[in-house]
Sequence to fold (350 residues):
Amino acid sequence: MRWDNLTADPAGDRARDAALFGADAVTTRTFDSPEFRGVTFHEIRARSIVNRVPGASRMPFEWTVNPYRGCTHACVYCFARKTHSYLDLDTGLDFDSQIVVKVNAPELLRRQLGSRRWQGEHIAMGTNVDCYQRAEGRYRLMPGIIAALRDHANPFSILTKGTLILRDLDLLKQASEVTDVGISVSVGFTDSRLWRTVEPGTPAPERRLDAVRTLTDHGIDCGVLMAPVIPFLGDSPAQLRATVRAIAASGATSVTPLVLHLRPGAREWFMAWLEHHHPYLVRRYERLYAEGAYAPKWYQRQITRQVHELAQEYGIGPTRAGMPRRITAPAEPDGPMAPAVPEPTQLTLL
Fold:
C-alpha cells in the first residue's frame, strides 16, 4: 500500500507535499468477529486531522474532520471511493473492507483546536466517509472528537447513516449548550429491497429514522438529507411520498433532497452493480449521466420540487442544502429566509 505518497492534497505535487503518515506508523489488524469478518483495519497515527476543503469544492463549509478512510457501509454509489486509489487500493471491494483508522484523531484535534492559529471555524464531519460506521463501535474515536469540540466551543456538524450516533447523545447535548451543532441523518429512500442491495452495510432506513426521532425527542434538532434519490429506482411519486411521509413522522426538522451523482471511482462500481442487478437500466443511466457526474438540471429541479411540495404537505419546512441548523438559539427574526422552492444545489456529500 502506498502510504508514503498519501498527502493532504492527493492532486497536488507529491514530491513536495509531506505525507500524512509513513509506513512505519501503520499497524494492520483483523478481528475475529461476525461484524468485521473480511475487514482489515490499518491503524495509523495521523499528522493532521483538520482538513481544508479545496477551493473549487461545492461544499458549504471550509473545514472537515475524517477519522476514517474507507467505509464498511459499502454504499455502491459513495463518491469517496476514489480516495482509496491514492493508496493503490481499488475503489470497489477494497474501499468496503480496507479501513484506515486515524487512532490519534481525538488528541490531535484537541491540540489543533488549541492552536493560536485556529480561529474557531465550523468543522463538518461525515462528508467523506461515515464517522459512525461499524468501525466506530470498536475504536470509539467520536466521543473524544466531540468532547474536544465541546471543550473549545467550536461549531460543528455531523452527517451520518449510523445509528451509533445515539451512543454519544449526552455529549451532543453538552456541546449544543455551548456552540452551534448541526445533525443530519441520510435517508434517501425507505424501499427495503433497494436498501439491501445498494447500502448493504448500513442500518435500515427505518432504524435511521428512529435515531432522528430519538435525537429530536431529546431536544437536538435533526434534519434529513434525502440522499441519494436514485433515478428509476427510488424516484417514483409513490416512493418519494413514502419517504417524505416517514421522514415527517420521525420529527425531522428539515428534508433536503439530493439526486445521485456518479463521480469517477464511484461511477464504475455503481454501473457494475447496475449491470448485475438492473441491466435494463444501464442504457438509461448512460444517457442520463452522459454529460458527467451529475444528472441534468431539469431532473434535479423536478425531484427538488416534488420533495419540497411533499414536505410542505406533511409539515416539514425545506431548508437550503447544507445549511447549518441551530440547536439552542432561534434564527434571528430579520435573518435571511430560505425561498419556498429553492434552486436545487447538488452537493458532493454522498
Remarks:
- The first helix runs from residue 93 to 97.
- The two ends are 25 Å apart (CA to CA).
- The first strand starts at residue 26 and ends at 30.
